[in-house]
Structure formats: C-alpha cells, structure tokens
Amino acid sequence: MRRVAIGVLVAGLLLASGCAGPRAFERDGIHLLVGPSSGMGRQALISGKLHVGEGGCVGLTKDGKSSALIIWPAGTTLSDADPVAIHIPGVGRIGLGEVISAGGGDPGPNEVLPAIPDECDARSISVIDGARWVRRGPAELADPGRGA
What we know:
Lipoprotein, disordered C terminus, signal
C-alpha cells in the first residue's frame, strides 16, 4: 500500500510540474499527437497551414500536397469546437487552414514520441519544441517537414 501511495504522489508531482509524457488523443477519427514537456533547443523553422492529413492526423501543409506530421507542444488539445481546431497553451485556438510558424525540428534518435497510429502518414515528422515558439502567420520555409 505504501508503494502505491508513493507512486501516486510522484505521478501527481510530475503532472503538477508540467512534466507530462507524450500523448496521443483521438476524437471522431482525428488524431492529435502531443510531445512531452521539452527543453530541447532545435532551431529549425516549421511553418504551414493546419490540416488533417492522411489517416486523420493533425499536421501542417505548405501546398496541400506535401505535409508533415507534427508532434505538438505539451498541453496542446483538440478543441471541442466544430470544425476541427487545436488549442495550444499561451497561443490559443488554431483552426484548420490557419498558418502558423514554430521552432522545432526533426525528432532525435532517442526522443520519446507518442504512439503514432498506423493509419497516419509518418514519412515526415517534425516536433515543435514548446508553445513559446509558436507564432500565428507565415514564415519563410521551403518544406514544413524538413525544418531549416
């Protein structure tokens, strides 16, 4: 019983401190992949329009043809609103078709990512390193899935 109580206490402290692990959310066939709290300092620029890609995964597209599966910052959620939108803490609601730019890059070889659903196109994955790096509006970038 004592071990269970200690485990619950540690889990509660981690959640309270913002150290949540990677998570995958699904609602009505839409998948949102959220990374853990990260202190990573990748310096690639990721930009594009919010869209729902192959298999229902929320990502970014530059031209409607190429897209990147995005691992969103910790705390990002699917909005309850219809049409589909996401909510990024400190940034707010971002709807489908809205252009954003963010700091991040390719996932590291030992980086812990949320489980990616089989139906999602995972050929190009980018990780946004935290909500403080997300800005509304366009940025100069040739390919949303490749970083700088």
